[in-house]
Amino acid sequence: MSVYSKFMLILFIVGLFVSILVSSSKPINSEVLVGSDNPAENVVIAGYKHWTRVNPEPQQVMSLIVAQYSNLGRCAAQTAPPEFSMEAQNPHRNKFVVVYVNEIARPAMMEQKLPIFPEGSVIVKEKLATKDSLSPELLTVMRKRESGYDPDKGNWEYMVFDGAGQTLQADGKLENCQGCHIQHRATDYVTRVYLPASVLEKLR
């Protein structure tokens, strides 16, 4: 073998080795778009502002459970149901929300009285400090996963992002989220308290 051929072979081997190192340093099945110009860096919610906006006006989220027991003057720790503590930790309580759904989730959200959300459905809820807030404090996300992911709780994965949608703060089978949404089994664990009256009237 000539010197030139040996040199080219060494270059090829070095290049192959470097390529393997670079590819192995990237997370497998990563859903984060590195360097994307889109403010929503995670592909699960990328472009969500262009999805179907469920409620045209920000909807204030009130806890009916907490309000009921507070008005009765009862000691929550002694008399309230287990749902009380979960509701008290609800990140949306007494905040305003705007909700978006992707195309897969739209029929279940907007048309079905007893919805069954198909796999791949994504619901993004913007949490706003006030009705007139220009940007959300937080994004909370529900994504319908494959059958068997969490069958006892609807196979929903929960995610929490910062308001810009750039930093994933928590995800998975989040107990705080499940504790509230489990009260809504009849509607596939989705609250829908934010649906406008005009949409509610047309549910079938």
Description:
28% of the residues lie in helices and 18% in strands. It is of the alpha+beta class and 204 residues long. It has a single domain, classed as 3-Layer(bba) Sandwich (Chalcone isomerase). The termini are far apart. 25% of the residues are buried. The model is unreliable at 20-41, 64-80 and 83-88 (pLDDT under 50).
Distance between the termini: 77 Å
> Low-confidence parts lasting 5 or more residues at pLDDT below 50?
20-41, 64-80, 83-88
CATH superfamily caption: Cytochrome P460
Number of strands: 7
**Beta-strand percentage?**
15-25%
In N-to-C order, the SSE pattern is HEEHHHEHEEEEHH
CATH class membership: Alpha Beta
Question: What integer value in Å does the Rg equal?
Answer: 23 Å
Shape: elongated
CATH structural architecture: 3-Layer(bba) Sandwich
Q: Biggest β-sheet: count, sense, barrel?
A: 7 strands, antiparallel
Secondary structure tally, helices = 7
CATH topology: Chalcone isomerase
Could you tell me the mean pLDDT?
78
**So what's the oligomer here?**
single chain
What structural class do helix, strand and pairing data support?
Answer: alpha+beta
Helix content: 25-40%
In the residues, how many domains can be counted? 1
Brief sketch in words of this structure:
This protein is elongated.
